[in-house]
């Protein structure tokens, strides 16, 4: 009898939306940074960050990513995180949590998402939680990235060809400049657009 295949672990990204008391912005800033620093000390941690929706908004967003669900739960169930959350209850109120898997994890409009809602609609026992659907197959992720990267890199190479003397630069300098320019373009514009365009194909059952 063949052994059952081990399930493939996928990185999990958690996006949290909070309401912050505007009169305690300085405290909240230090508190949010402390949370990301704490998470960084846990096994499987892959990155984190936080942003405000705007200067006049009380919406703050936090993002962190772990290697797989078990390492994520190691952080989420830890006494360190419980202490950190308790220390911010006076000025921070969590309103929505999204768990995302696959290449879309760092981008908006994910198609592999679970949403946990905290608020009047949630039962007192905890958040509403749905199972995390599997990420798209790796070949689909690779095709999606390539479809975004190829035309972007092609356009950038053509434009950089007009920079005087660029062709004579050392290879490492040319690659450094192009990657510095293309990384934010791919992250904030190209890949989110490509994943939205290809969502029906990416969501299709294996």
Automatic annotation (TrEMBL):
- Would the keyword Membrane turn up in this protein's UniProt record? yes
Q: State which residue ranges cross the membrane.
A: 143-163, 175-198
Whether Transmembrane helix counts among this entry's keywords is yes
Q: What are the alphabetically sorted keywords of the record?
A: Membrane, Transmembrane, Transmembrane helix
Q: Which protein are we looking at?
A: ABM domain-containing protein
């Amino acid at each position: 009898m063949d052994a059952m295949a081990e399930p493939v672990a996928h990185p999990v990204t958690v996006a949290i939306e909070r309401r912050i008391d505007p009169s305690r912005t300085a405290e909240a800033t230090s508190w949010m940074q402390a949370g990301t620093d704490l998470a960084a000390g846990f096994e499987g941690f892959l990155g984190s960050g936080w942003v405000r929706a705007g200067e006049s908004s009380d919406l703050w967003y936090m993002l962190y990513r772990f290697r797989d669900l078990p390492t994520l739960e190691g952080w989420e169930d830890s006494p360190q995180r419980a202490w950190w959350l308790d220390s911010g209850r006076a000025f921070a109120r969590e309103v929505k949590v999204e768990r995302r898997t696959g290449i879309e994890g760092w981008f908006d409009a994910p198609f592999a998402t679970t949403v946990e809602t905290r608020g009047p609609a949630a039962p007192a026992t905890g958040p509403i939680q749905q199972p995390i659907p599997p990420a798209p197959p790796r070949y689909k992720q690779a095709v999606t990235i390539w479809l975004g990267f190829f035309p972007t890199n092609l356009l950038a190479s053509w434009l950089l060809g007009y920079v005087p003397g660029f062709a004579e630069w050392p290879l490492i300098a040319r690659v450094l400049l192009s990657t510095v320019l293309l990384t934010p373009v791919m992250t904030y514009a190209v890949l989110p657009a490509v994943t939205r365009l290809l969502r029906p194909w990416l969501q299709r059952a294996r």
